[in-house]
Amino acid sequence: MLKNLLRIGISIGISFAILALLLQLVNSGLSDLERPSVLAALQATSLTLVAAYFVIYLTTLFFRAYRYRLLLSMSGEPNVPTLRQMALVTGIRNMIVDMLPARLGELGYVGLLNRGYGVKLEHCASSLAVSIAFDFIALLVVVFLIIGKQLLGGDVQGWALGAMISAIVLCVIALAGLFVITPWANKFIDKNFKAKSETGLWFKLTELLNNFAASLEAVRNAGKTSQVVALSVMIRVLKYAGMYLLFQAVAGPSFAELAELPLEHTVGALIGGEIGASLPVPTFMSFGAYEAGGALVFQLLGVSNQAAAVVTLLSVHIWSQLMEYILGGVLLALFVFIIRRGKGVERAQASAVRKRMIQIGSVVGAGGVLAVGSGFLAYQLWAATKLGALSAPAAGEVSADANEWRELSKKHVSSIDGFVVFSSNRDGNHDIFKLDLADFALSKLTSHPNTETYPRISPDGKRLVFARAHQVWMSQRNSVAWDVYVLDIASGNETKVGSNGTAPAWVDNESISYLQDTTKVIKVNVANLNAETLYESGVNNAMPKGAALQNPKYNPNTGEFVFTGRQNLIGMNTGHWGTALSNGDTHRGIHNGCEISWNSAGTELFQVTSGGRDNTNHVVKIDKETLAVSTLIDLQGEFSHEYWPKESSNGEYMVIGASRSRKEHEHDVADYEIFLWKVGSQPHEATRLTFHTGNDNWPDVHIR
Fold first, then answer.
1. What is the pLDDT of residues 365-395, one digit of tens each?
2. What is the C-alpha R_g of the chain?
3. What is d(CA 226, CA 258) in angstroms, rounded to the nearest whole number?
4. 676: which strand partners?
5. How far is the C-alpha of 240 from the C-alpha of 115, rounded, in Å?
6. 3-state DSSP call for residue 646?
7. In degrees rounded to 5, what are phi and psi of residue 629?
8. Do 336 and 9 contact (CB within 8 A), yes or no?
9. Which of 147, 149, 487, 646 is 20 to 30 Å apart from 542, CA to CA?
10. How far is residue 389's CA from residue 226's CA, in Å, rounded to a whole number?
């Protein structure tokens, strides 16, 4: 019972650690531009096709194990493992084969067989080497099949002919190396460099080479070459059939143009990825090398959407590694316990104290593996939550009491000549909406399928600047995968003015600023699109180079910047987020919190911080010189967790978004409502403008 529990604990711990490693790749191993597309592709993957791939993968595993066992018996090995044992070794081999560059992980197969089941080293090495050589032959057969298909269609392509020539060269080199060069080299060394002593290292090496050559000779003379070739072709066909299904599982829902490519094109790219993973390039689980090899083939085939090709190949790689490493981790734990159980006789002869120590050590070891694996996975899951919501929130519905409260709000603001804009998902995805205060009429200014947010009104009230995501859904925690647009409100005409950036703002009627790549503040003239860098972390300023900023605000009157950042980067010692003021030469940490901004005159600061009612957020005013803090507004009533305070250009009004509590915090998911407040009035006099359970965010107000 104890052994079974220990086995289960180690298996779970290893599986958790493997899951955490793959999750870490997505969390921190991808750039902000790549991550959203990969996450979307992974989320949209057809699980039915993934399950079909896994069935084919298991079938391939047993065919491969049977071939290894056949080669061992052909070599003359007296201690051939059972098919079940070979399947165990093969599953572990599949996991570790990509751990080292140039597929050096294959050597793990030799170690497992030799140490675990007592198979002689020369037979381990010969079965591995012959299987690799016959894999090349099987690859040549697959290429012949592709060319045959192209011949039937009357269009043999150059890349296929090139692949055939390469496969032929590899087959000739592999077979000649094993069955011609190895025997010759063995005889040459034995004749000219025979070891003088039977105890030295050279004698052991030459003896191993001699035995290896004899094992290869036995395999060649066994008369089962056709059977090995047939098994190799079957393995190769099953492998690419499974990978093709996995490719379709990813590409089908996300990239139709890739899913519709001819079969031989996709298989060619998969072969290219396999070759890339085999190169002597130091990578983690072959990530990067595999994608580069496959993408190169797609490029040679004329696939124009290279970004989609890389995302698809990376997603396919993640899915395949996920299954191989989880299964391989479980099989490795089983292997260790089975081998240890096989040595039970030796342990039975140990003293009672020693057996007790072994039991305690086993429990501690298994507990440690489970604890480390669980902790690592928990940390990576926590890190994933910091990437924001992986899918768009529900559109929501009109609040039950909307009509009653809307009429009351309309009376309060009907005398104000102005309008409010904000981003809302009430129509299914985040678009930009406009609310005229005089008649409370709501209109939609954009209708693009991709997420749109951060609307800001020009000083003259005629245009908007906003950010549009690179894909349908994008969490606002990603500050890169967006482009910046200017919209003419009257005509609806849009102009793209910036790439890979968010948090746009108007500098004046002719130019805007935005945060690019999280480290640069770019200024763009919206008429001629001339751009300049106003600020970059660590470049001619006191900030650490490369420090990530959020929502920077530029004061054109003084040349100063305020922004939010991680506190360890902006000179503050407590908490996680804080705000800072920088004039280039120096920067000062201001206060815990976020969403810092200048007032309309550019003379004072206000921001969001905790400490409001029920410890929710509230808006505080900060003296720029003394950094003295005082409450500006803390909303009363049901909605009192404030965000996105923004003054009108004349400083008379402020718009604010607010949710019910700190538990409803996520900016682009929670039910935020928009409020209008006359600066200096009582908090309870703020007027609620929206009445919808969807997500309304990033408001701005213009008073004519």
1. 667 767 877 887 788 777 777 788 878 899 9
2. 33
3. 36
4. 655, 687
5. 32
6. strand
7. -115, 135
8. no
9. 646
10. 55
- In 3-state terms the chain splits into helix, strand, coil percentages (rounded to 5) of 50, 20, 30
Q: Quick one: which H or E segment has residue 58?
A: helix 47-75
Helix axis angle for 83-96 and 306-342, nearest 10°, is 140
In the chain, count of helices (H) and strands (E)? 18, 24
SS (H, E, C) 182-243: HHHHHHHHHHHCCCCCCCCHHHHHHHHHHHHHHHHHHHHCCCCHHHHHHHHHHHHHHHHHHH
Structure tokens belonging to residue 305: 């959407």
Q: What is the 3-state secondary structure (H, E, C) of 326-361?
A: HHHHHHHHHHHHHHHHHCHHHHHCCCHHHHHHHHHH
Tokens of residue 522, six digits: 């770019």
How far, in Å, CA of 325 to CA of 478, rounded?
29
SS3 571: coil
- List the one residue out of 457, 543, 435, 439 whose CA is nearest residue 506: 457
Please report where in the chains the tokens 């290429």 appear, as a residue. 143
* CA 674-677-683 angle, 5° bins: 105
Q: What pLDDT digit, counting tens, does each position of 533-571 carry?
A: 999 988 888 788 888 999 999 999 999 999 998 887 776
> Which of 458, 511, 450 minimizes the C-alpha distance to 482?
450
- C-alpha 240 chain-centroid distance: 24
Distance CA 524, CA 607 (A): 26
Residues paired with residue 532 on neighbouring β-strands, in sequence order: 523
Q: Is the pLDDT of residue 344 over 60?
A: no
Instruction: Judge contact between 578 and 590, C-beta under 8 A.
Output: yes
- Residue-wise pLDDT for 203-257, tens only, equals 677 777 787 788 878 888 888 888 988 999 999 899 999 999 999 999 999 999 9
504: part of which helix (H) or strand (E)? strand 501-508
List Cα–Cα distances, 517 to 33, 339, 479, 541, 677, in angstroms.
9, 52, 7, 18, 34
> By CB neighbour count within 10 A (0-12 exposed, 13-18 middle, 19+ buried), where does 419 fall?
buried
**22 touches 221 (CB < 8 A):** no
All domains of the chain, ordered by start, with CATH? 1-30+344-385 (no CATH), 40-342 (no CATH), 402-703 (2.120.10.30)
C-alpha separations of 579 from 130, 260, 568, 662 in Å: 64, 50, 11, 20
d(CA 355, CA 118) in angstroms, rounded, equals 25
Those residues whose C-beta lies under 8 Å from the C-beta of residue 103, and which sit 6 or more positions away, are 97, 277, 278
Q: Which residue has the tokens 């180690």?
A: 10
**What's the rounded Cα separation, in Å, for the pair 90 and 113?**
10
Tell me the average pLDDT across 453-467.
Answer: 97
Sign (positive or negative) of CA dihedral 311, 312, 316, 319: positive
Q: What's the 3-state SS for 505-525? A: EEEECCEEEEEECCCEEEEEE
- For 146, the 3-state DSSP assignment is helix
- Looking at residue 680, the DSSP 8-state letter turns out to be T
pTM of the full structure: 0.77
The pLDDT assigned to 14 comes to 67
DSSP state of 572: -
Beta carbons of 606 and 621 less than 8 angstroms apart: yes
CA angle 363, 368, 371 (to 5 degrees): 120
CB atoms within 10 A of CB 457: 23
User: 64 by DSSP, 3-state: which?
Assistant: helix
C-alpha dihedral sign at 135, 287, 253, 303: negative
CB 677 within 8 A of CB 656: yes
Tokens of 111: 């170690």
Dig out the tokens for 324 from the structure: 């191989």
Residue type, 204: K
